[in-house]
Amino acid sequence: MISFFICLFLLVGGFFVYGKFAEKVFGPDDRRTPAIAMEDGADYVPMGTARIFLIQLLNIAGLGPIFGALAGAAWGPSVFLWITLGTILGGGVHDYMIGMMSMRHKGASVSELTGMYLGNGMKQVMRVFSVVLLVLVGVSFSTGPANLLAMLTPEVLDMNFWLIVVLVYYFFATFVPIDKLIGKIYPIFGICLIVMALGVGGMILFSGNYTIPEITLQNLHPNGTPIWPVMFISVACGAISGFHATQSPLMARCMRSEKSGRNVFYGAMVAEGIIALIWAAAGAAFYNGTGGLLAALGQGQASVVYEICFTLLGPIGAVIAMIGVIACPISSADTAYRSARLTLADWFNYDQKPIKNRLVLTVPLLGVGAFLTQIDVQIIWRYFSWSNQTLAMIALWAASVYLLKRGRAYLVTALPATFMSAVSCTYILMAEEGMRLSTSVAYPIGILFAVGCLGMFTYSCILRKGKNIALPVGDVNFD
């Protein structure tokens, strides 16, 4: 339990210390933001900081920090370290830098930002990569809520009925003005997510019936699945997630001041890390070890959430849990489709102020999503997990070049970018859905790939310094 509190303290302290350092590295100022200069009543809509924080939290979180943390706890309390250090040094920096870069570039999506700083070829890759990833998120978080709603309603309202209802909601959430639907209901569900985590954490800590294990680096996974790199892929939301890079530009288009960036982007990531830490501890303590937890996860992660909430918090907890496991994935999927629409709009330079233009992109996106719901979601999710962390790697390298071009302390992003390069490469080499190589082959290749990425970046630093190249910065100043 002591190590849990240490990690909790580090997460909170990380916001005030390392978050402040990241803010200083970027250097926000008083320039007008896209929300003010480009207000269109649809996607560029100024909103208050507290409201944006709750929307951002639900955008990036959903059930990610719950499901991912429970899965990660199957390796034992070593997951506490990844959640803590990943959030402070990786996820918080990743979300903050992409959000702030987007504000500096008219609210541009991550694919466009990547193209600006890693070249046109990478931009084309990221455009496709981002849209595919976002649609996979939408598909993954469609069938689950529909199944749960079918279980709670009369038999005539089956899964297909609720799937249609969910997809219809996604249709409206994808194209209506962001402050009319998402801006009104997300803060409520964001509060529910926080209350659920605090309630579960409080009962685990203070009921006297459970013991949170202390951190050990020993692999406690019952199946012997290696920590590296599988745990780092399994626990994405709650540590670092490339999906967040697609979400931060949504709020970058709604912020009134650059100086709110640390509270919104870094702060929401820290809040997600705390939620993940609580649920990882709850999973390990409630099932009294990784064996019991893994067996429970075999019945489905939603059932684990329900069991924990109902046992610890009673009927009220059960209601909150059901709201969480239904509303939270829906909240991730609708903003995923919305981000996909905006990514396509940036791609084709297609003005999204007219409703007709929004519908032109929304209808085919939801059509593809509806078709993919007929495929086994577990297959889709396996590919999402890897592509998610690969996107984080690419986004961090783009942010590193951004900082390099401005003479800033680029190591704040280059080091986590190197780490995530090793994680992503190693995983796809050894994963079942990848090349299925042995660890003796995958590990050294993954490390060499990461070193190669860092070497290329270092070479560009030396080249720039040696030739005194004045690289264009490209920031937009509306004043």
TrEMBL record:
<comment type="similarity">
    <text>Belongs to the peptide transporter carbon starvation (CstA) (TC 2.A.114) family.</text>
</comment>
<dbReference type="InterPro" id="IPR003706">
    <property type="entry name" value="CstA_N"/>
</dbReference>
<feature type="transmembrane region" description="Helical">
    <location>
        <begin position="185"/>
        <end position="206"/>
    </location>
</feature>
<feature type="transmembrane region" description="Helical">
    <location>
        <begin position="304"/>
        <end position="328"/>
    </location>
</feature>
<feature type="transmembrane region" description="Helical">
    <location>
        <begin position="264"/>
        <end position="284"/>
    </location>
</feature>
<keyword id="KW-1133">Transmembrane helix</keyword>
<feature type="transmembrane region" description="Helical">
    <location>
        <begin position="128"/>
        <end position="153"/>
    </location>
</feature>
<feature type="transmembrane region" description="Helical">
    <location>
        <begin position="441"/>
        <end position="462"/>
    </location>
</feature>
<feature type="domain" description="CstA N-terminal">
    <location>
        <begin position="157"/>
        <end position="278"/>
    </location>
</feature>
<feature type="transmembrane region" description="Helical">
    <location>
        <begin position="409"/>
        <end position="429"/>
    </location>
</feature>
<keyword id="KW-1003">Cell membrane</keyword>
<keyword id="KW-0812">Transmembrane</keyword>
<feature type="transmembrane region" description="Helical">
    <location>
        <begin position="79"/>
        <end position="98"/>
    </location>
</feature>
<protein>
    <recommendedName>
        <fullName>CstA N-terminal domain-containing protein</fullName>
    </recommendedName>
</protein>
<dbReference type="Pfam" id="PF02554">
    <property type="entry name" value="CstA"/>
</dbReference>
<dbReference type="GO" id="GO:0005886">
    <property type="term" value="C:plasma membrane"/>
</dbReference>
<feature type="transmembrane region" description="Helical">
    <location>
        <begin position="159"/>
        <end position="178"/>
    </location>
</feature>
<feature type="transmembrane region" description="Helical">
    <location>
        <begin position="226"/>
        <end position="243"/>
    </location>
</feature>
<feature type="domain" description="CstA N-terminal">
    <location>
        <begin position="294"/>
        <end position="425"/>
    </location>
</feature>
<keyword id="KW-0472">Membrane</keyword>
<feature type="transmembrane region" description="Helical">
    <location>
        <begin position="386"/>
        <end position="404"/>
    </location>
</feature>
<feature type="transmembrane region" description="Helical">
    <location>
        <begin position="359"/>
        <end position="380"/>
    </location>
</feature>
<feature type="domain" description="CstA N-terminal">
    <location>
        <begin position="5"/>
        <end position="143"/>
    </location>
</feature>
<dbReference type="InterPro" id="IPR051605">
    <property type="entry name" value="CstA"/>
</dbReference>
<dbReference type="GO" id="GO:0009267">
    <property type="term" value="P:cellular response to starvation"/>
</dbReference>
